Amino acid sequence: MDSxxxxxxxxxxxxxxxxxxxxVLLPLPLLMRLMPAYRERRDAVRVPFxxxxxxxxxxxxxxxxxxxxxxxGQKVLITLMWxxxxxxxxxxxxxxxxxEQQKAGRDLMIAVDLSGSMETEDFSQAxxxxxxxxTAVKAVLQQLANERAGDRLIVFGSNAYxxxxxxxxxxxxxxxxxxxxxxxxxxxxxLGDAVGLAIKLFKAAxxxxxxxxxxxxxxxxxxxxxPVDAARVAxxxxxxxxxxxxxDPTAIGEEAIDLDTLTRMAEVTGGQAFEALxxxxxxxxxxxxxxxxxxxxxxxxxxxxxxxxxxxxxxVLLLYVLLRCLARLWPLPKPEISQ
Length: 339
Known about the structure:
Layout (H helix, E strand, L loop, with lengths): L2 H11 L1 E3 L10 H7 L15 H8 L14 H18 L2 E4 L3 E6 L1 E8 L9 E2 L5 E2 L1 H11 L8 E5 L3 E5 L5 H9 L12 H13 L5 E8 L10 H10 L2 E8 L12 H11 L4 E3 L2 H14 L4 E6 L2 E3 L2 H20 L10
Helix pairs in contact: 4-11, 7-8, 8-9
């Protein structure tokens, strides 16, 4: 195969037609030529004294009927215009070089508790000073944001909301995380409703590997659906739940941590429950989760497409202008006066 054939082959491989059925219209002008010409009968009177009749009626002679015959050049231009219109109707696209991208094959969602119990200052920070539970959680999530790009963020209190959709923009994700405040979603803990919202969002996702990371004290005080029942529904949707109990497990009252409920939720869905009393514990849990649920990537290959149907349309316009110019430069011969 010589170089010319290689170039032609590459050109045809990079050319894609969105509407190839448009080429069926190519022989339409030929079919029109096979149809009989339009004819019309009219009454007429033939007189042998045409010139004297004009003088008597003081009329001026008019050009007789004629059949316009196109020149060969005009036929070629009209044929090219029709071909260009068909090419534009087929909507050609130019295919670029193949691009391969790595797409995350795991959909991980983080649910953060914003109820009133999250303001309890029983969390030990790296510097040894105590902090409330939400502040410690936000600090660790900020550290790990670059490693877990694209995670969706749910916040819940008396109600559950989607705080951040799927995005790989770290700055936007961190900004939305920093905007969270205790009691922003209500003072109660609707743990089961948060799981229900996660199930709804997971249904719209195309990935099969679904993981819900639940950062809470686990003390459900306002769910319409009990947390364990919600976990059973999540298990039916192939969603694994990893609850992380944040805070002191010895706390009592509204600040108490319900480890039993979190453990049952994890067991029902095939996940695992964890406890975190400090920032170091929370970081260790995240690293362990990275081992239990390694990020999976799917290779996606595609070729960018550029519409080039404007090229044959531009050719139609240029051919039309050329056709009009030829008609001006080389007009058809004038017909003789009919007598």
